[in-house]
Write a structure and sequence with these properties.
278 residues; alpha/beta; Rossmann fold; 5-stranded parallel sheet
């Protein structure tokens, strides 16, 4: 994920997230009325890449303000690196009255006419279809690195139908590791999960590696973990690209020996979590 362009500058809007070189000098703050603000202190003429971890509309707003400031400094090539794309899960309108949230975010980003928008392991192909000039970094190398610490014979677990296409490509990259398909039921009105199915008679104590893009509250992985236990799974590990973990780790650690994630959304420090920096 490094750039070989010696003329590239970087603007890391999150001081704790610096995936490339040193950031140009700037200051940012929020006015008492809630408005974000930025002041770039260096004269930038060459190409630049803005990086950020978007956790709120203010974070997106800071990107827009930074882009405007750079345009006014006559910077011609501006790239964006946002590993976690907000609202990527809201890629369908399930019930009347809801927005197509991912399109709202994509339209705002596209309005800035970035030379390139780089994202990491998007939730679905809808995200990449909506974003202009998009470059996708898949999860293959990341998962491979996670698996280096897993011992014994293991299988890859696809949590639901939406993950199947990506996990079979991952399996091919890893040399043809066996994939176990699973499914879940969700009430589209309430969002509640009602059941999990593992399409295998038995896992014969093989280590189960559950791979997915996002872990938010963890309900999917808790329910799936119990279903895998009922199918005689051995040791279980969870690999997610974007760790939100809004409900913590207490329940997850009862099922999964190790939880792997990246710092694409936030920094995590926990005894059961291995975080790999992007």
């Amino acid at each position: 994920m490094r750039t070989n362009n010696a003329n590239m500058n970087y603007l890391h809007l999150d001081s704790d997230f610096t995936p490339f070189g040193t950031s140009i000098d700037f200051e940012s703050f929020t006015f008492s009325g809630g408005e974000p603000h930025i002041k770039i202190k260096e004269d930038v003429k060459e190409a630049i890449t803005i990086t950020h971890r978007i956790q709120s509309f203010n974070d997106l707003g800071m990107i827009l303000l930074a882009t405007d400031a750079l345009r006014r400094m006559h910077v011609q090539e501006i790239n964006l690196f946002i590993p976690y794309v907000p609202a990527a899960r809201q890629d369908r309108v399930m019930v009347s009255g809801e927005p197509l949230s991912i399109k709202v975010y994509a339209d705002i980003i596209n309005s800035q006419n970035f030379s390139k928008v780089t994202i990491f392991d998007p939730h679905s192909e809808v995200t990449s279809a909506l974003l202009n000039n998009v470059e996708i970094i898949n999860n293959h190398e990341y998962v491979q690195r996670c698996l280096q610490s897993v011992q014994g014979e293991f299988v890859l677990i696809s949590p639901d139908g939406g993950a199947l296409k990506k996990i079979y490509k991952l399996s091919q990259y890893l040399g043809g590791i066996e994939v176990i398909e699973c499914s879940k039921k969700r009430d589209v009105k309430t969002g509640k999960l009602s059941g999990f199915t593992v399409y295998a008679d038995s896992l014969h104590k093989k280590t189960a590696i559950v791979v997915d893009d996002i872990c938010d509250g963890g309900g999917t992985f808790l329910g799936l973990g119990k279903a895998l236990q009922e199918k005689d799974a051995g040791e279980m590990h969870l690999i997610v690209s974007h760790g939100i973990f809004s409900k913590g780790f207490d329940k997850l650690k009862e099922i999964y020996k190790t939880i792997f994630t990246t710092n694409s959304f936030r920094d995590v420090t926990h005894e059961n979590v291995v975080q790999i920096k992007i």
